[in-house]
Design goal:
Largest sheet: 5 strands, mixed
Strand content: 5-15%
CATH topology of one domain: Conserved hypothetical protein from pyrococcus furiosus pfu- 392566-001, ParB domain
Number of helices: 19
Number of strands: 5
Structural class: mainly alpha
CATH superfamily of one domain: Conserved hypothetical protein from pyrococcus furiosus pfu- 392566-001, ParB domain
């Protein structure tokens, strides 16, 4: 089997060895030393770009460098051999190489003393991985295959599945279209809201303690803020890791598989056979389930005999590969014969489309398809309206478009305007009711105030009568 990534394992081994050596000597925060490095001492790392995309960007970069010089230095790491491994700047490096080949005098003028580089001093594995992805704003990653390459770089340098889920979370959404569900987003938002509330409480405590001059209480509250912040990051990352678990397991299986799997995925992505392959030597389709089977077979081969490797797969993998090829051929034939049906969307994916729908009829249909309970009578009514509209459209589309639709739109405007008037009237009525309620509620208060200042007339008259009777009884005695 041919492949385009034979050097990957060698490069990754050198990356791991260099990083391990430097991390062992120092755990300090990464620092950079700016220096000019001879072009011939620069080695590309495991670039995650699509080959064709990288070539196009490199040619464009070469034009820019030749005209305006290099705008930003390359980020590199010194290896044990004294050479320099590129972590960030692969397109710039390729562009410089193109300038060297086509305009030697300009190359000498710009880079005769070396290529401007920022050399990492004592990087951690995580810091190196982040730079290795090289997805800047000018040339961001745009392909799912590039996301696969990024994951391979993570796993090759010791990352766990949780690390990959967190580190590539944004790319899984922007590049792979694999968005986190609304329910999971709500849980993440709840964690962040709880954190904000807790921090607000700690900050209030800090103000009180500061006013009292209580240094110990201030320090305790500050420690509380740090703790709740770390705890929330862990909780959010747990949600992300769980949400991405299935997709990351697929990425891990790709990383565990021989190079030919990535070449097949590149073929699926671009439709172009990678170098070294002939027509029919790669499957036109390869599923997540197939990747899992292939990775399992490959790991079993290595367990039996460690001479098998990513560039030289063993017998169990080859047997599984033949099955994948057969399934691909069968699917291709079915597609050509018009037998394939599109894969059904999941209930979650269906419900995620609701915010994009304006029609209640469509929303009811989507909810029903997703397995939710809907108002059957209401759905029948709306279906009848749609059915009548279809008859009118099919009978005379011009009449429907030119006459019916404009009239409907006028009706909708009139309804909207009437609703706005009703809303205003209701608002005024509510305001008037509230004012009346305030007056009514205030009345007892006024009466009480009056009672506190003077006695009620009825009470005064009663007292006069009682006094007169008392005087009359004394006289009779």
């Amino acid at each position: 089997m041919g492949n385009t990534t034979d050097k990957t394992s060698v490069v990754n081994a050198e990356i791991a060895a260099a990083v391990d050596q430097q991390v062992a000597t120092s755990q300090q925060q990464v620092r950079f030393e700016h220096m000019l490095v001879p072009f011939d001492l620069l080695d590309p790392g495991d670039n995650v770009r699509l080959p064709d995309v990288g070539d196009v960007n490199a040619r464009s970069m070469a034009d820019s460098i030749e005209a305006e010089a290099l705008k930003h230095p390359l980020t590199v790491m010194r290896t044990a051999t004294g050479r320099f491994l590129i972590a960030c700047g692969h397109i710039r490096h390729s562009g410089i190489g193109i300038v060297k080949d086509r305009n030697a005098s300009r190359f000498s003028e710009l880079f005769g003393e070396g290529v401007p580089c920022s050399v990492m001093i004592n990087p951690t594995i995580e810091q190196y991985r982040n730079l290795l992805l090289d997805h800047g704003e000018e040339h961001p990653l745009t392909s799912e295959w590039e996301l696969y390459k990024s994951a391979i770089a993570f796993f090759a340098n010791g990352a766990t599945e949780r690390d990959v889920a967190i580190g590539l979370n944004t790319l899984m959404t922007t590049v792979a279209g694999n968005a986190i569900t609304a329910d999971r987003k709500s849980k993440i938002a709840a964690h962040n809201k709880a954190k904000d509330d807790d921090i607000a409480g700690f900050e209030a405590a800090i103000k009180v303690a500061t006013a009292k001059g209580d240094t110990k209480a201030v320090q305790d509250a500050e420690a509380g803020i740090r703790y709740i912040t770390r705890k929330t990051v862990d909780l959010v990352n747990d949600e992300i890791a769980e949400a991405r678990r299935g997709y990351v397991q697929m990425l891990h299986n790709i990383a565990r598989s021989p190079h030919v799997v990535m070449d097949a995925l590149l073929y699926r992505e671009t439709g172009n056979l990678p170098n070294g392959y002939e027509e029919g030597s790669l499957p036109t389709s390869i599923t997540t389930g197939s990747i899992k089977t292939l990775a399992k077979a490959h790991m079993s081969d290595i367990k039996d005999d460690d001479n098998w490797n990513a560039g030289r797969p063993g017998p169990k993998f080859r047997k599984a590969w033949l099955k994948v090829m057969a399934q691909s051929d069968k699917k291709a034939k079915a597609t050509a014969d018009g037998e394939n049906r599109p894969k059904a969307m999941s209930a979650t994916a269906l419900l995620d489309t609701l915010p994009t729908l304006a029609s209640e009829s469509q929303k009811l249909a989507v909810r029903a398809a997703a397995g939710q309970d809907v108002d059957g009578d209401r759905r029948k009514e709306l279906d009848k309206v749609a059915y009548v509209a279809e008859i009118l459209f099919d009978h005379d589309s011009e009449f429907w478009t030119g006459t019916c639709i404009p009239r409907f739109e006028e009706c909708m405007k009139a309804i909207k305007k009437a609703d706005e008037v009703v809303d205003v009237d209701e608002a005024e009525a509510e305001a008037e009711a509230e004012e009346t309620e305030l007056v009514v509620n205030a009345a007892p208060t006024v009466e009480l105030e009056q009672a506190a200042g003077e006695e009620a007339p009825e009470a005064k008259d009663k007292d006069k009568v009682e006094a007169k009777d008392k005087k009359s009884r004394k006289s009779s005695k």
